[in-house]
Amino acid sequence: MSIIRILSVDDHPILRQGLAAIIANEADMELVAEASNGREAIDQFRLVRPDIVLIDVQMPVMEGIEAIMAVRAEFPSARFIVLTTYAGDALARRALQAGAYGYVLKGLLRKDLLTTIRAAYRGVKTIDQEVANQIAGHTADDVLSDREVDVLKLIAGGNSNKRVAAHLAITEETVKGHVKNILGKLGAHDRTHAVTLALTRGILPFPRGTE
């Protein structure tokens, strides 16, 4: 029987302990290393060359999706499964585009994790049904441009149009134009609603400590 060698990456020790406990009960799996951020994940991958990497999205030093892209640039066959609290379509789409083989909500780990690991090991990509529904529901939506995301991040930080303009070295009229486009693309009623929708969909990251 082939043993699936696994690297676990999450900045919460309790979550890593839980994953270790789940994996320890499986005869065909072995936890070979752990990491607490994306940078450590890259180093550990190079060291142990695992079959599967379980990785969180929001972490200090380097986020999960950035780490996935970095590892796969060096090791194209690397297989990642994203573990996250968020079902947002934009976040899931970025993870899948980066090369993730699976996307599992942390609240469903005991239900879906082992099946997803074994599927990824076989080269089969799987995604949580709730997340798949979210992606399907926004397939036709216009994607925010990088500049619009920059503007929205500053708005989420409580900045006025004037302060956003100063920070990005653009005019207030340009900021107002971006805000109008953002509201239209997200189907938002106002700036606050736009930020809420962007957080829910994973266009903007939740503040550290809220996940």
Kindly describe this structure:
The protein has helices at residues 13-24, 38-48, 64-74, 89-98, 109-121, 129-137, 146-156, 161-168, 172-186, 191-201; strands spanning 4-9, 29-35, 52-56, 80-84, 102-105, 126-127. The protein has two domains: 4-137, Response regulator (Rossmann fold, 3-Layer(aba) Sandwich), CATH 3.40.50.2300; 146-201, Orthogonal Bundle (Arc Repressor Mutant, subunit A). It has a six-stranded parallel beta sheet, sandwiched between helices. Helix 7 packs across helix 10 and helix 9 (172-186) packs across helix 10. The protein is α/β, with parallel strands linked by helices. The chain is 53% helix and 14% strand.
List key phrases describing it.
211 residues, alpha/beta, Rossmann fold, Arc Repressor Mutant, subunit A, 6-stranded parallel β-sheet, 10 helices, 6 strands, 53% helix
Summarize the helices and strands and which ones pair or pack.
Blueprint: E1 4-9, H1 13-24, E2 29-35, H2 38-48, E3 52-56, H3 64-74, E4 80-84, H4 89-98, E5 102-105, H5 109-121, E6 126-127, H6 129-137, H7 146-156, H8 161-168, H9 172-186, H10 191-201
Helix pairs in contact: 2-3, 4-6, 7-9, 7-10, 8-9, 9-10
Brief account:
The chain is of the alpha/beta class. Helices cover 53% and strands 14% of the residues. It folds into 2 domains: 4-137, Rossmann fold, CATH 3.40.50; 146-201, Winged helix-like DNA-binding domain superfamily/Winged helix DNA-binding domain (Arc Repressor Mutant, subunit A, Orthogonal Bundle), CATH 1.10.10.
